[in-house]
Design brief:
single chain, 16 helices, 459 residues, mainly alpha, 72% helix, globular
């Protein structure tokens, strides 16, 4: 169904510009470092810096006011639960309305909530349910914000892979710096100062997005909230490479990522001390920077296949800890793991952003995020019982083996390993879609035949 969606979807964020061709990436500038991409880049880096400061401030502040680790976990869980449960609905909103305005609104909400948290911690008025409520509101705002990120990148850059690589490097650098900055602020001032700084990062992000001028996007007419949600699900199911990766990723969350998060911390701290754990974490962050830089240079024709091979490196992290290797080998394993996962992340994000029609990209990204995170709490909950039954080291060693199994499963799915990048090796503008071709590497902007409601718009 052609046409412009209600509520401003399909329109440029600039007045007087409507519509856009679906055969080429709408309005993307010729080079990467345009004014608008620079603004978006700064917004993402600043927001990531603030987000990585928050756990330090929350833990220090709650403990300072007499709460234990359980209360800290509850406050964090409130954010994660609201985000995971609402992000799919956020994808529908992002496909119906202006993504830029939704992201600005989400940042404004979090500016208010984090400022309020700063006041609470500054005045000593720290009540658990209020902190949890703030976390829940933050999670809901993040659920509205996150889906729009997927469609914003291809609208700002013709070289989507390079754009994702640059943003990944910036976010990884911010992830390294955030906890350190938060620790300094807590030491020199108080946790309230970190909450205030975190609120400031949302203000800067909102300002960058306010100055941003997005080129016109291509969207289908809204069919109503429930039907839009159903169409997004049908588009998700129609792409074997997409739901196949998510299904396999759930296995990784349960067997590797979920258990590794608490078990690596406990094992390294008990055997080598908290300083060694901090060093290993920093090495993991440094590896993600390296992986992002590599993704800027390598341009494989079959991106998911290359990403799956790179993801093999993730096995080095849990395996090195589970094998009780020395700190040096753990650091090496963390660097290799970070580089592998970061390279995969760029390949995956670029594939989704270039292979999925812009009309449903935000909804598809929301299903991607929700599916990827769904099994993480399950894996974390199973970490304790599994460690008690088999020992933490054996669970981590098995996690390393499961990484290899997951990568093998990714490569075993023809739709995943055979997905051809849009635009060939150069990765510039997308190639024209083949009529009636579903899951073909070149059919980036054409709706699959199973979903006739979404037809390509023509300029």
């Amino acid at each position: 169904m052609s046409g412009v969606a209600s509520g401003g979807s399909g329109e440029s964020d600039e007045p007087g510009i409507r519509g856009g061709s679906a055969g080429a990436r709408p309005g993307a500038p010729g080079g990467l470092w345009s004014r608008d991409f620079g603004l978006f880049f700064v917004a993402r880096a600043i927001a990531k810096l603030g987000d990585t400061m928050l756990p330090v401030a929350l833990a220090a502040g709650m403990l300072q006011h007499g709460y234990g680790a359980g209360a800290v976990g509850l406050a964090m869980a409130a954010t994660a639960a609201c985000f995971a449960s609402l992000v799919i609905f956020g994808g529908v909103f992002a496909d119906r309305f202006s993504t830029r305005l939704l992201m600005i609104g989400a940042d404004a909400v979090r500016l208010v909530t984090q400022s309020l948290a700063a006041v609470f911690f500054l005045t000593g008025h720290v009540v658990l349910w209020e902190i949890c409520l703030i976390g829940a509101v933050n999670g809901a705002a993040a659920a509205v914000f996150q889906p729009g990120v997927a469609s914003t990148v291809p609208r700002l850059a013709t070289d989507v892979q390079k754009a994702n690589g640059v943003i990944r490097v910036a976010e990884s650098g911010a992830q390294l710096a955030g906890p350190a900055v938060a620790g300094v602020l807590v030491g020199l001032a108080s946790p309230a100062a970190v909450f205030a700084a975190h609120a400031g990062t949302y203000a800067l992000s909102a300002l960058c997005l306010l100055l941003l001028r997005l080129p016109p996007g291509s969207r289908a007419a809204s069919l109503g909230f429930r039907k839009d949600l159903a169409v997004g699900w049908r588009e998700f199911r129609a792409r074997t490479w997409l739901w196949g990766v998510i299904a396999i990723w759930c296995v990784l969350m349960i067997t590797v990522t979920g258990p590794a998060t608490p078990l690596v911390a406990v094992t390294v701290v008990e055997q080598h001390g908290s300083g060694a754990y901090g060093l290993v974490n920093s090495a993991l962050g440094a590896g993600t920077v390296i992986g992002g830089v590599i993704a800027l240079r390598l341009r494989p024709r079959r991106m998911l296949r290359a990403g799956a091979f790179a993801l093999v490196g993730f096995a080095a992290f849990p395996a090195s800890v589970g094998a009780q290797a020395g700190v040096g080998l753990m650091v090496v394993g963390a660097v290799v793991a970070g580089a592998g996962t970061s390279f995969w992340a760029v390949m995956w994000a670029t594939s989704v952003q270039t292979q999925v029609p812009p009309d449903v990209l935000n909804r598809i990204h929301a299903y991607d995020v929700a599916g990827s995170l769904a099994m993480l709490p399950v894996g974390q909950a199973l970490a304790g019982p599994a460690a008690a039954a088999f020992g933490a080291e054996r669970v981590l060693l098995m996690g390393g083996v499961m990484v290899l199994v997951v990568c093998g499963a990714l490569l075993a799915v023809p739709a995943v390993r055979g997905l051809v990048r849009v635009g060939g090796l150069a990765g510039g503008s997308p190639t024209p879609p083949l009529p009636g071709c579903d899951n073909c590497g070149s059919a980036a902007w054409g709706a699959p035949p199973q979903t006739p409601l979404l037809k390509r718009r023509r300029g």
